[in-house]
């Protein structure tokens, strides 16, 4: 870290100790990056499935529920500041941001930790303590991921963007190894880890605090707050399915949905590779070139999604999940194609989100997307209250919500003059292809 609170320059950070890349050989650097990325994504991908295999449906459902709410809470409590770091550091004069990032964790993290202590040790509400602890861990994840991506610390970013998953999985696994099962020990341990995260953030803030913090925070808020609504909408698109299922259906249904969701999320690995390794280049890329490359990518992952749907019924027979009863395995297979449509839509959503931020049109897209989400939410709630909501129907509604959000993004970019016709055609083709294949292989 430079004395002024930021890396000296981007090119140095790519090769520095934080980037874990050494040497000038391009092939060596590429090999190190992809090897490291594969290991980090394998860990993040397998960790929730490990919990599903080891925990009962109640414990696993609560952890998934905590992960869903923590993603929303961390994004909201940081007020869009992490999303502002690229514009502060890539499109204008470089300013110190390390102290801002530390404060984003320490400030709201302190409040969450106090609430977790009260929930775990005063109110005897361990479920709430698990959720609050996960939220604090997610604060660190949001801040560190934005910082590492912006300054192209390519080999650290993949690990840091899954801190919440690693943290909660590590806590649950350690408790299971020492024979402490159930929600109460999990809530207490999550609270202690939350306190540790806050202490470390405060230490870094004290070390990195530089002059002009107030003005730099105001600049970050001025950029980040308009992005916040759309970022929250994006997070809600990813987590709302588990929240709806947890609120209106059974914990067994939540386990089925979550397992399918985790397996389908393998489709997003390619997006993470490109977005992490080439973030700065993609951020600056012209819309026409971005449209052409994105269309190729979307067609390619649609084909991968079809292959995953075809292979899933055969591979799932060899895996046992403690959180899912034997008689629930057929619904797991039947629901999977719908979750693949969701994952495909989310991959397109995340790819277009980068262009909206670059064009500074996130706020208009957010307003339209939120209207759509309110409509879907009202429909889900109405069906759930009247006992008419099934697991499959809820998954279909969330898939429609995701694809509708993608259509809104394309429309918003079109109105801005950043037309992306090839990407729109690729998204339509991929969605129809995945849906058709899923329909024909239903058990």
Give an account of the 3D structure.
The protein has 443 residues and is an all-alpha fold. The protein is 80% helix and 0% strand. The protein contains 18 helices and no strands. The chain has helices at residues 10-15, 26-54, 57-77, 81-90, 98-121, 126-150, 157-160, 163-177, 183-208, 213-248, 251-264, 269-277, 279-284, 287-315, 329-359, 362-385, 391-416, 421-440. Helix 2 crosses helix 8. The longest helix has 36 residues, at 213-248. The radius of gyration is 21 Å and the shape is globular. It starts with 9 loop residues before the first helix and ends with a helix.
In short:
The protein is mainly alpha-helical. The chain has helices at 10-15, 26-54, 57-77, 81-90, 98-121, 126-150, 157-160, 163-177, 183-208, 213-248, 251-264, 269-277, 279-284, 287-315, 329-359, 362-385, 391-416, 421-440.
How are the SSEs ordered, and which strands pair?
Elements: H1 10-15, H2 26-54, H3 57-77, H4 81-90, H5 98-121, H6 126-150, H7 157-160, H8 163-177, H9 183-208, H10 213-248, H11 251-264, H12 269-277, H13 279-284, H14 287-315, H15 329-359, H16 362-385, H17 391-416, H18 421-440
Q: What percent strand?
A: under 5%
Rounded mean pLDDT is 83
Provide the helix percentage.
Answer: over 70%
Q: Whole-Å distance between the termini?
A: 55 Å
Give the helix/strand class: mainly alpha
Number of strands: 0
Order of helices and strands: HHHHHHHHHHHHHHHHHH
Q: Tell me the major beta sheet.
A: none
């Amino acid at each position: 870290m430079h004395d002024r609170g930021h890396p000296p320059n981007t090119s140095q950070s790519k090769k520095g100790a934080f980037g874990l890349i050494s040497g000038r050989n391009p092939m060596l650097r590429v090999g190190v990056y992809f090897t490291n990325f594969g290991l980090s994504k394998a860990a993040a991908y397998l960790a929730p499935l490990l919990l599903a295999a080891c925990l009962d449906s109640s414990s696993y459902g609560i952890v998934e529920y905590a992960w869903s709410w923590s993603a929303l809470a961390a994004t909201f409590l940081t007020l869009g500041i992490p999303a502002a770091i690229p514009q502060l550091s890539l499109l204008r004069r470089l300013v110190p941001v390390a102290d801002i990032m530390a404060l984003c964790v320490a400030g709201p993290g302190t409040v969450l930790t106090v609430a977790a202590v009260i929930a775990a040790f005063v109110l005897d509400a361990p479920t709430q303590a698990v959720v609050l602890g996960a939220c604090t861990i997610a604060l660190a994840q949001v801040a560190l991921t934005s910082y590492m991506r912006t300054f192209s610390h390519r080999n650290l970013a993949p690990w840091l963007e899954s801190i919440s998953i690693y943290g909660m999985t590590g806590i649950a696994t350690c408790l299971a190894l020492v024979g402490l099962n159930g929600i109460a020990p999990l809530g207490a341990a999550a609270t202690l880890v939350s306190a540790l995260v806050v202490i470390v953030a405060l230490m870094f803030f004290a070390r990195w605090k530089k002059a002009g913090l107030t003005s730099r925070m105001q600049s970050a808020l001025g950029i980040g707050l308009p992005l916040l609504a759309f970022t929250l909408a994006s997070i809600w698109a990813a987590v709302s399915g588990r929240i709806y299922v947890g609120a209106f259906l059974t914990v067994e249904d939540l386990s089925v949905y979550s397992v399918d969701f985790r397996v389908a999320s393998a489709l997003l690995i390619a997006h993470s590779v490109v977005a992490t390794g080439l973030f700065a280049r993609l951020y600056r890329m012209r819309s026409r070139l971005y449209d052409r490359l994105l269309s190729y990518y979307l067609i390619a992952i649609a084909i991968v999604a079809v292959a995953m749907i075809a292979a899933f019924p055969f591979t799932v027979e060899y895996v046992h999940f403690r959180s899912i009863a034997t008689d629930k395995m057929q619904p797991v297979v039947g629901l999977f194609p719908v979750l693949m449509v969701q994952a495909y839509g989310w991959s397109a959503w995340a790819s277009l989100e980068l262009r909206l931020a670059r064009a500074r049109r996130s706020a208009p897209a957010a307003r339209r997307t939120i209207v759509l989400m309110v409509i879907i939410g009202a429909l889900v709630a109405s069906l759930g209250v009247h006992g008419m909501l099934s697991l499959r129907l809820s998954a279909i509604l969330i898939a429609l919500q995701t694809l509708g959000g993608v259509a809104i993004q394309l429309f918003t970019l079109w109105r801005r003059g950043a037309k992306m016709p090839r990407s729109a055609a690729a998204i339509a083709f991929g969605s129809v292809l995945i849906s058709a294949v899923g329909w024909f292989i239903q058990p």
